[in-house]
Amino acid sequence: MNITVVGGGYVGVITAVCLCEFGFRIYLCEQNQKQLDSLKQSISPSSEPGVNQLLKKHINAETLVLSTTFSNFISKSFAVVVTIKPDDNNPNLSNIHSAIRAIALKLEKNRYTGVLIKTSLPVGACAIIADNVKFVRPDLKPGEHYDIISNPGFLREGVAIHDFMEPNRILIGLERSSTKSEMLVSKIYKPLEASGVPFIFSNFETVELIRAASIGFVATKMAFINEVADLCERCGANINTVIKGIALDHRIGRKALDVSPGFGGSSFPRTIRTLVNAAKAFGLDFHILTSTIKSNSTRISGIKTKILSLIDASQEKTFPNMISKQVTILGLSFKPQTGDIRESASIFAINDLLHDGNIKVVAYDPMFKPNDTDYEKLPNEIVSNKNFHIAESVYDAVNQSDIVVIMTHWNEFRSLNLQKIKELMNKKHGEKPIILDYRNMFSKSEMSMFNYISQGQ
Asked: Which of 26, 131, 134, 337 has its CA at 20 to 30 Å from residue 304's CA atom?
């Protein structure tokens, strides 16, 4: 049985290789020739663990076919899965609508084809897509010849394969219920149905809102616990114990109650803004999520101020052309196990520090090494700044540094030689070197050789 997956980006590649694991033959279509060439070499567009191995496995087995066009494959497939990412610079979703129109023109009367929208879209988008398909193909009848099916996923970067293969739930949005659409969904997700994964069937808007509201709620928890950590610092409470006490309340739970420099990535910020804008379109103010966005922004913008206050950078203002302070940033991605730096707090903080004009910033991240391809993902305004450097190792990064700031909780950082770091760092006579930890990776006792500043401990 064949399925066509349109879009060879992050969601498309994960979807394709996982559906191959379910036993289907997948036609993965990506128009960007450079990206397609990388996929043919079993190199995914992201650094997601395990994906390259699955790409190689299924390309070699010929259960995964790669192409720049999908026009020849739709007639061979019982389902088409659209995973094209919305254009961030084009809120009218024109790239999605163009793809759906091209797919609709290839649908055939003598067979049923399910068109699954796997990409994350604003509330109301799938209804517009369904209307557009009716306009383009008035000769076809929904429920008989095809169905538009909203099927958003919840893929967390770093564990996306696990999330696809063992999801918390499967969301299915339909304009109207049809026997053929339900049979198609059951066929695609048979392994998950057999293992007891809950399926939620509803209309387009409900399913779209479930995904957006879920992300908004998790983001609100993250922003909330960061503010609690700030309060702990002021009043002398311990955030780790506070989290433990909160998490024991079964109405709340432990997930997303970790302090951080602020949430980022491609999904959370964009989804929350889209949800707030959707509410505005209906004449509503989403006060809680608006406050969550503001809280997260305030936390990220305060990182520079906190760093400069700890190293007493005000004295350099007398010598604006001299670089006399070095800041080490450990971690560039917004979370470990990924090279995604979109809306990462580290990138915002580095940009703010470099704009100060007299701060040298040295960064280290396992995913970003000088001359590596991932290095190209870094913003040009940062890499072109003479005061910014990428280090080959943590020890190179901390050498002669006035402060080390832990921004991403990579496991590599847990096994560092702390004594060596202490010896390499710059410090005033008789004072301990400064480490600012936005992830609370260590305890005060194990960091006793440093002036260790954690969040709310």
From this structure: 337
Query: Could you name the CATH architecture of 212-293?
Result: Orthogonal Bundle (1.10)
Query: What are the boundaries of each domain within the chain?
Result: 2-202, 212-293, 302-453
**Which CB contacts under 8 angstroms, 24+ apart, belong to 417-424?**
418/446, 418/447, 418/449, 418/450, 419/449, 420/395, 421/394, 421/395, 422/449, 422/450, 424/395, 424/398, 424/399, 424/400
Write out the two tokens for 183.
Answer: 């049979």
For the full predicted model, state whether its pTM sits above 0.85: yes
Matching residue, tokens 């979370």: 335
DSSP annotation of 166:
S
pLDDT tens track for 80-119? 999 998 876 566 788 999 999 999 999 999 999 999 999 9
pLDDT of residue 239: 96
Q: Which residues of the chain have pLDDT under 70?
A: 88-91, 313-323, 373-374, 429
